[in-house]
Amino acid sequence: MDYFFSDRISGLKPSAIREILKYGSDPKMIGFSAGNPAPESFPVSEMKEISAEIFDTMASSALQYGITEGYTPLREKVKSRLITKFNSVSEDDEVIITSGGQQGLELACKVLCNEGDTVLCEDPSFIGALNAFRSYNVNLVGVKTDSEGIIISELEAALKREKKVRFLYTIPTFHNPTGKTLSLERRRAIYELACKYNIIILEDNPYGELRFKGKDVPTLKSMDKEGRVIYCGSFSKILSAGIRLGFVSANKALVSKMTVAKQVSDVHTNQFFQILADKYLEKYDLDAHIAKIRELYLKKATLMRNGLLESSKDILDKVNYTDPEGGLFMWAELPKGFDVIKLSQNLLARCVAIVPGVAFAADPSLPVSAFRLNYSTPSDEQIVNGTRIVVEEIAKLL
Amino acid sequence: MDYFFSDRISGLKPSAIREILKYGSDPKMIGFSAGNPAPESFPVSEMKEISAEIFDTMASSALQYGITEGYTPLREKVKSRLITKFNSVSEDDEVIITSGGQQGLELACKVLCNEGDTVLCEDPSFIGALNAFRSYNVNLVGVKTDSEGIIISELEAALKREKKVRFLYTIPTFHNPTGKTLSLERRRAIYELACKYNIIILEDNPYGELRFKGKDVPTLKSMDKEGRVIYCGSFSKILSAGIRLGFVSANKALVSKMTVAKQVSDVHTNQFFQILADKYLEKYDLDAHIAKIRELYLKKATLMRNGLLESSKDILDKVNYTDPEGGLFMWAELPKGFDVIKLSQNLLARCVAIVPGVAFAADPSLPVSAFRLNYSTPSDEQIVNGTRIVVEEIAKLL
């Protein structure tokens, strides 16, 4: 039969990153294209121990249906941690456990937007979020960014210009794909504009724990006096990505609607690993574990940046690499008109995978002369060899 | 701030069952209201053993991001099993792993329906599915059922009457909430009507493996020559509900769109338990395990039905209990106008929880003089005592 598909899904293409990730799983390939945490970031022996304990002492609840909001002891611990680390739970807030950070973004859009309503985002931004919003047929509008992140005057112009703006999606800390961190001043300005134009801020902070240099900047949620910030976090980069464990902190009324939406989506998040995460937080020192991940990523990020800069000596006037203070990503910017698609094809032929910047564009019909590099997944040796190859191929096309 | 919520979510109430389930977790309560599998249905020691093996031999892939379609070896095994047991994968079909059976239903609606399009369902039907469809603002239309299930002439009348009918949602085997199984003749008639009116059938079969008496009836999917049946299944009732593991078998084109929708929803299903399920299927005899669950549920269903019939001797002209051949549920029908809400309140006061039939109605504004009983969760003693109390309270209100 000929199929009819909904408008919301007809235009949605499989994520370009996911397609490129297929190359990343090829062991011969140097995978700068992934967004995977380093395997060393999983506390395997601790998780194994807790897992055996759960099977021995509470299997029948860990394998049974749970409540949609999430395993209560884990919600309490996440709440405490969010208060201590990010000041991101206020008195009228509630925490819900989600199936990865991704689900928080999708649920937020589902409950906040009718089709045709406007969502603002940084341009470029995380493709998984953009596609989640597109899947609800919203009017997705990118706001221009500069070397420091979202440009405040552009944000206000969009707020004035666009109709029915429901929320701004932002990754203020260790941005994906650029690795940039937004200054305190710009964060304050964003919050003020959100109040002035009465919109919600969807603050995505999956990398916030991974600062390896510089100083923490307060979250947007920490400035929130009006319950207008929905804060999304994740265990993917600090415990395990494959277990799909994330969380949302937001005003009770918002969490209540997101809970209803989650109930019809997957009833609840994997109960066994909710309990496992809870016991991990109880028995082990997550901060000590994170300190090791930070050290590892500092090393890898430094290796990548130095490799890039060194090989780029002769073209440094034409290429710019961001200098992330945390997270997983670096962003390479090239002169306008540079053919990044051609570059990525040439690199694939030499067994190096990158993600062309257009994959992160709010409007993918416009060219983007930049690409994303990930340093958490490849080995040190791959970083050294891969950066050299990347720059060689850039130079050929300049 | 005052929140704006999308139309699709504004009208959606938390599931009445979930609310009633809160009582179910009270240990003093006799919980006939749940939909939980018996804890004995979880192969705990086998799962523990496999879990340790995964941590020892393949932790870094089990805890890492996976692909949206699901863990390939598991998809292959599910496919083989679906072919052998239910003849429900054809040549042009593909299998995708979902985060519980629920996610398959939600994704199907998301990709098939624009807002305002029509979805047909049996009336009554599974509340989780109905709410998933409602959350996409569809025109949800219930089709009348009789003692054998959906009435074919009513289905055709709805197909003639309603506009933009995209699919029929049906649970033909061990229906939730009624426990009824649709005859082969009616299944054939449904498939013919689907062809005639060019609609998709969304066949939900989470209980299909749990037949404890009578003979298997072919699935609708097994009749499918045109790729118009989307078949949803689940590991919840045969392995574990808490791990949220389900699957969909459908034409490649449909699965491809559902994969895009799943990607933006939760990226992929918990990777660790996908691998665990795969290894369980490889190392153990799932059929032997299911045989034990069937025996258990036959015992519990018989105990419940006998308890109800015995206590109801004096009112058997006024009450009817279905006689399920498998699954988890029994359905009690009472004379028109009987106050089931009052009954369920009176029962709660006596520490027995049931689910009023109205919770499963396509149109919850109409009264339903029936209620659902679950026999998989309560202990044998609770079944004996609980059924006596249920009938005592029915008699008082007759």
The largest pleated sheet of chain A is described as:
8 strands, mixed
Oligomer class:
homodimer
Number of helices of chain A: 14
Q: Architecture of the largest domain in chain A, according to CATH?
A: 3-Layer(aba) Sandwich
> Which word captures the global form of chain A?
globular
Number of domains in the coordinates of chain A? Answer: 2
Give the helices and strands of chain A as they follow along the chain. Answer: HHEHHHEHEHEEHEHEEEHHHEEHEEEH
Which pair has the most extensive contact? A-B, 84 and 84 residues
Low-confidence segments of chain A, given as residue ranges, are none
Q: What is the CA-based Rg of chain A, rounded?
A: 21 Å
Widest sheet: strand ordering of chain A: 2-9-8-7-6-3-4-5
Structural class of chain A: alpha/beta
Counting DSSP E segments of at least 2 residues, the number of strands of chain A comes to 14
Taking the alpha carbons of the first and last residues of chain A, their distance comes to: 50 Å
Task: Describe the protein in words.
The structure is a homodimer of 398-residue chains. Chain A is an alpha/beta fold. Chain A has 2 domains: 147 residues, Alpha-Beta Complex (Aspartate Aminotransferase, domain 1); 220 residues, 3-Layer(aba) Sandwich (Aspartate Aminotransferase, domain 2). Helices cover 43% and strands 16% of the residues of chain A. In chain A, the strands form 3 sheets. In chain A, strands 2-9-8-7-6-3-4-5 form an 8-stranded mixed beta sheet, with helices on both faces. In chain A, helix 3 packs across helix 11. The model of chain A has no long low-confidence stretch (mean pLDDT 95). The interface between A and B is large, with 84 and 84 residues.
